[in-house]
UniProtKB/TrEMBL annotation:
Catalyzes the transfer of the AMP portion of ATP to flavin mononucleotide (FMN) to produce flavin adenine dinucleotide (FAD) coenzyme. ATP binds at T9, F10, H14, P15, G16, H17, D92. GO terms for biological process: FAD biosynthetic process; FMN metabolic process. Residues 6-136 form the Cytidyltransferase-like domain. Its EC number is 2.7.7.2. NCBIfam families: cyt_tran_rel. GO terms for molecular function: ATP binding; FMN adenylyltransferase activity. This is FAD synthase. It catalyses: FMN + ATP + H(+) = FAD + diphosphate.
Length: 153
């Protein structure tokens, strides 16, 4: 039984997330998704939705066998608990495979580190970024003070 782990913020779910999780699931028999805590999302604006809601949405995806709230302090806590055979990084995820592989080896965790493929938009209107979804909402629904087009867009 090959256990796979994938991870991310998964704020406003979109087909890119689905592609990533399906790609990761295809690399083993069961897929566990770790959902980042707000405090650990430091390389971009904080997520709009709370971690529990983000976890619940990821858990609802067919590709995902179980979704977990990430540890608030130590990203390796869920890894040591889950003891995966493969960790799949997202195609543009800011983590370094070699660095993670070293950290796993230092913890005697026998686990491969792989990187998923990216998915390109299939039509102009399609948004494959949570940040871009927020931008569109602000543009279309932002109040007059926020430069939005106002109204229900
Ligand atoms: C192997 C691995 C384990 C992680 N575990 C946790 C965790 O336990 N708690 C957490 O808040 N974030 C965890 N993360 C970090 C988040 O997934 C990271 O902030 C995430 O990559 C968000 O960035 P992204 O959504 O832009 O990809 C982990 C990342 C990796 C690569
Ligand atoms: N278009 C895509 N194709 C494949 N994987 C994707 C795509 N978009 C996001 N992912 C992957 O999903 C995981 C979670 O991504 P994240 O939660 O950061 O969403 P995001 O849409 O990339 O956020 P943002 O674009 O606002 O930074 C990451 O590993 C990322 O590589």
């Amino acid at each position: 039984m090959t256990r796979v782990v994938a991870q991310g913020t998964f704020d406003l779910l979109h087909p890119g997330h689905v592609h990533y999780l399906e790609d990761a699931a295809a690399r083993g028999d069961e897929l566990h998704a770790i959902v980042a805590r707000r405090a650990n999302v430091t390389h971009k604006p904080e997520p709009i939705l709370c971690a529990r809601q983000r976890r619940d949405m990821v858990a609802a995806l067919d590709a995902v066998d179980e979704a977990h709230l990430g540890d608030p302090e130590d990203v390796f806590v869920p890894i040591e608990r889950l003891d995966p055979d493969v960790i799949v990084l997202g195609y543009d995820q800011h983590h370094d495979e070699a660095g993670i592989a070293e950290a796993l080896a230092a913890r005697d965790i026998d686990c491969r580190v792989e990187r998923a493929s990216g998915r390109e938009p299939r039509y102009d209107e399609e948004l494959l970024s949570s940040g871009d979804i927020v931008e569109r909402v602000l543009r279309r629904r932002g109040g007059p003070g926020e430069g939005g087009e106002g109204g229900r867009g």
